[in-house]
Design goal:
The chain is an all-alpha fold and 582 residues long. It folds into two domains: 1-150, no CATH class; 200-477, no CATH class. The protein is 77% helix and 0% strand. The chain is built from 20 helices and no strands. The protein has helices spanning 8-26, 43-73, 77-101, 103-107, 109-141, 160-168, 172-178, 183-191, 202-226, 228-237, 243-250, 257-301, 315-323, 325-361, 366-396, 411-446, 465-481, 483-520, 528-558, 561-581. The longest helix is centred in the middle third of the chain and has 45 residues, at 257-301. The protein is flat.
């Protein structure tokens, strides 16, 4: 999961299986449980037993779906694909047969939509293991080693790290020439701009997919079961000739029937609408988190940590926080969805019932009272604010018009305006404070489901556990997927053994033998291989220092910031050398 970029969709589907079963546990559908009525124990002990049963069920779900991950990650591709095909065939048949036999899934469209992602994931995994088995048998037949998850010892042209480093080493004019796009490419870049050499990791894709799947499941459950009491009240209880009409007639309050039916049906309609709106908002948030993840990772690859809080420096705490990221993100997005949906429901109901329907029916309401009482105050405050903008732009600033240079002109008028607005802004500040609280509440609720946004002010980021978990996740991703570091390690793995061991040990001995042999037998013919070894060793010895110096100079030329870091070390070296002489 740390540095693998293959089979990402397969990992996503496997985590999808697990998340659906975990959501069933949250609804109380335990696969293994005890009868609490038969337990004669205090309430505290029953709570402990319930927690233990929940942990056992979570471990049971993980144990059941662990073979999928084992079959994907194993280096024995034929065995892994074979066992995976058998295992996924069983589960696909089980779920397909269960859906076909259950009348709820066959006759209910919403119930079928609830099972659609899980069914699609099982069918994809069936195709993946089927074609994976065919390809692995073919590779085995032609004696091609696919290598599993191991990185190649040499760089391949289509490797993501190699492509990223290759883009870094291009000249700026080459990047500008390669950046020329057609009209079709410009349209595509508006939706998504590709970055050569960058791929989303398995962990972020699995986390986002599980969040989307959980959001999808919870939203459908809210529409199916959460709105069921309101649906019953709207379509049956307060329908014409329903139980509510008969009851109100029996107590001589038939005049409030229409109003109660209107309120109930409005509550039902706004609940369903706001549930879908909240789900769409948080789905867009999750997709946007991928773009934010890519932007932050590219910044960290370049060494830019401007978004990083300075107080978060403990590697131990960041590593522990990274382990919580996926679970926190799923929980936060569900909490954010539910709280946002509830508040949107209340706001939509009050706006429609207390404003639009009140104007239509000609009745009084609290919303209309506040609008009629304070509309002129808000208008005056807006006019004064606009007048302050125009006055500051064309009267007070030295650079009139564009306002780029900050300096006060007409100081006497500025002091007069400051005196006049001093007490007015006190009254305006009372309402501005309420507006500030409202803004903080709105944005806090809207971004509650996102761990990539800190909900606390600057300097207190470490108290936001969700944001700290996200930063820990980014730190782990950077440490294990940095393209420059991985490319450097691959190059060192390829070249260093040959230059260090082969040249210094084998080739030096071979050259010594050749030189001794030629000094004694000058007429003896030397083979072409011997001459190549001798020439390689001599060139390597002569040019090693020059080549190293050239590589250092070339690196500094491409990375000017390293020059200043190198210069900062020179005084200490000079001081050490002087002390050594003394």
């Amino acid at each position: 999961m740390l540095d693998g970029f293959t089979d990402r969709l397969a990992y996503v589907c496997c985590f999808g299986f697990t998340s659906v079963c975990i959501l069933d546990l949250f609804r109380g559908n335990y696969y293994f449980d005890v009868d609490y009525d038969c337990l004669d124990a205090p309430r505290a002990a029953l709570g402990a037993v319930s927690t233990i049963m929940a942990l056992i069920n979570v471990m049971l779900v993980g144990y059941v779906f662990a073979p999928f991950f084992m079959c994907i990650t194993t280096s024995a591709k034929i065995l892994g694909n074979s066992l995976g095909l058998v295992y996924v065939t069983y589960w696909t048949y089980y779920y397909t047969y269960s859906y076909a036999e259950c009348p709820r899934w066959v006759n209910d469209i919403q119930g079928s939509l609830l099972a659609l992602p899980l069914t699609a994931s099982y069918y994809y995994m069936f195709l993946r293991f089927f074609f994976g088995l065919i390809f692995s048998v073919h590779f085995w037949y032609v004696k091609i080693d696919v290598g599993g998850e191991k990185r190649p010892l040499h760089l391949q042209k289509r490797h993501r790290d190699y492509i990223y480093v290759k883009e870094l080493l291009k000249k700026p004019e080459d990047q500008d020439e390669s950046g020329k796009q057609t009209f079709k490419d410009k349209i595509k870049s508006l939706l998504y701009r590709n970055k050569p050499g960058f791929k989303y990791s398995r962990r972020i894709l699995c986390t986002i997919f599980v969040c989307l799947l959980s959001l999808y499941q919870v939203n459908l459950q809210a529409l199916l079961h959460g709105s069921e009491p309101l649906r019953y009240a709207c379509h049956e209880l307060f329908s014409d000739g329903g139980e509510a009409e008969e009851f109100l007639s029996s107590i001589n309050r038939s005049e409030i029937f229409d109003e109660a039916a209107l309120v109930t049906c409005l509550a039902y309609d706004t609940f369903r609408a706001t549930a879908n709106i909240s789900a769409i908002i948080h789905a867009i948030y999750l997709i946007h988190m991928l773009a934010v993840y890519r932007r932050y990772m590219l910044k960290m690859y370049k060494g830019d940590r401007s978004f990083w809080p300075p107080e978060l420096k403990s590697n131990i705490k960041l590593l522990v926080a990274s382990l919580r990221f996926s679970g926190y993100q799923i929980a936060y997005i569900l909490w954010g969805y539910m709280i946002c949906q509830f508040l949107l429901w209340i706001a939509a109901f009050l706006l429609i019932y207390g404003f639009f329907l009140a104007i239509r029916d000609g009745r009084n309401s609290i919303v209309l009272f506040f609008v009629a009482e304070y509309w002129f105050t808000a208008l005056v405050a807006l006019i004064i604010y606009v007048m302050q903008l125009f006055t500051a732009k064309f009267v007070f600033l030295l650079d009139r018009g564009n306002g780029k240079a900050f300096g006060i002109n007409n100081r006497r008028m500025f002091h007069v305006a400051n005196y006049i607005l001093f007490f007015f802004n006190v009254i305006l500040g009372l309402f501005s404070c309420l507006l500030r609280i409202g803004k903080a509440l709105i944005f806090g609720i809207l971004f509650l489901g996102r761990t990539d946004k800190c909900l606390l002010m600057r300097g207190f980021e470490s108290y936001d556990t969700g944001f700290k978990a996200y930063l820990g996740f980014l730190k782990v991703e950077e440490a294990h997927t940095h393209p420059v570091l991985v490319t450097f390690c691959d190059i060192m793995t390829k070249h260093v053994p040959r230059l260090s061991s082969d040249v210094t040990d084998v080739d030096d001995n071979e050259a010594q033998r050749l030189w001794c042999f030629r000094s004694r037998h000058k007429t003896t013919m030397v083979t072409e291989t011997d001459l190549e070894v001798e020439w390689f060793v001599q060139c390597y010895r002569r040019s090693r220092l020059a080549r190293n110096r050239w590589l250092v100079a070339y690196t500094k030329l491409r990375n000017p910031s390293l020059v200043f870091e190198h210069l900062s070390k020179l005084p200490s070296k000079k001081h050490t050398h002087t002390n050594g002489r003394n």
